[in-house]
Design brief:
It is built from 8 helices and 6 strands, in the order ααββαβαααβββαα. It has helices at 2-24, 30-42, 67-82, 95-102, 108-112, 118-128, 185-205, 216-253, and strands at 49-53, 57-58, 85-89, 132-144, 149-160, 166-176. A hairpin with a 4-residue loop joins strand 4 and strand 5 (149-160). Helix 2 (30-42) packs antiparallel against helix 8 and helix 3 (67-82) crosses helix 7. It is flat and about 90 Å long.
Length: 280
């Protein structure tokens, strides 16, 4: 019975140890969770702030007809690249806008004022469920074909969807000229757009804490530590199993076969059979 007990204990120890190793493996999740917590320590930035970007209006005339869309793309690209923002470009074909229109939450008049009226724009942003919304306009634009120099003035307004309060009211000038003889007026215009977009994004992002990414060396130390811990646990498990097996073997050899009962024959484990009574 004692031998069976030790065998069962060894099995339980083996099962428990294997379960522990499974938990400590990357697939098991124990060390993965600890590793994730380590990453969180180094990358504790908040959730992405969502922004609804309305198309920038053109107040500068026909020569700037394409500048607004160029500016929209440049701003969206730079905000998303920061890693702190998720930008959605407004269009009346957004599913949430379509549903709100069908449900008469947004009227056709509302859609016509999108981006131009701050209050209506906030109403639309609430339906899209973004934290903030950005509106703006190209105020002035000049392009000299002879010198291929471009200059523009752009205004922008970042507002909270929940309160409608203005978070950033900004205006910037962008100016660019040809960097080489092969630069066209369109190339220079894009350069000026990029300059203004960079200034707008920097202003929006000012005061926003930068993301801190765990260095590659730290990731390596974490991985090495994980392997070391698994090795220690495996070694401890093996020692415990061998120790338990040795103990079981000793107990077996020192009398594990001895049974209790009537007078025995001394360690054979076979009880003495009484002699039948003598006949009268």
């Amino acid at each position: 019975m004692m031998f069976i007990h030790h065998v069962r204990s060894g099995r339980h120890l083996l099962s428990g140890g294997l379960a522990l190793l499974m938990l400590c493996s990357p697939a098991g999740g124990l060390l993965t969770t600890a590793h994730a917590a380590d990453v969180t320590t180094y990358n504790s930035s908040p959730a992405l702030a969502t922004i609804l970007l309305f198309p920038f209006a053109n107040n500068a005339g026909a020569t700037a007809s394409a500048v607004g869309s160029q500016l929209d793309d440049a701003i969206k690209l730079r905000l998303n690249a920061i890693g702190s923002y998720k930008v959605t470009s407004y269009t009346k074909f957004l599913p949430s806008v379509q549903r709100a229109s069908v449900d008469n939450v947004l009227s056709q008049d509302d859609l016509a004022k999108a981006g131009a009226d701050p209050q209506v724009s906030g109403k639309i942003a609430a339906q899209v469920a973004t934290d903030n919304y950005l509106t703006g306009a190209v105020e002035t634009f000049t392009a000299d074909p002879a010198t291929r120099r471009v200059k523009m003035e752009v205004s922008a307004d970042l507002r909270s969807t929940q309160t409608g309060a203005s978070l950033r009211t900004i205006a910037f000038t962008g100016e660019a000229g040809p960097a080489s003889a092969s630069d066209t007026l369109q190339t220079v215009t894009q350069q000026a757009v990029n300059i203004v977009a960079g200034k707008i994004v920097s202003s929006i992002n000012s005061g926003h804490s930068e993301h801190s990414v765990m260095a590659a060396s730290q990731r390596g130390h974490s991985s090495a530590g994980q392997k070391f811990l698994i090795g220690v646990l495996a070694s401890s498990l093996l020692i415990a199993i061998l120790s338990n097996s040795h103990s079981s073997s000793n107990n077996s050899n020192s009398g594990g076969t001895t049974t209790t009962g009537t007078t025995g024959t001394g360690g054979t484990g076979v009880p003495t059979v009484p002699s039948p009574p003598s006949p009268p």
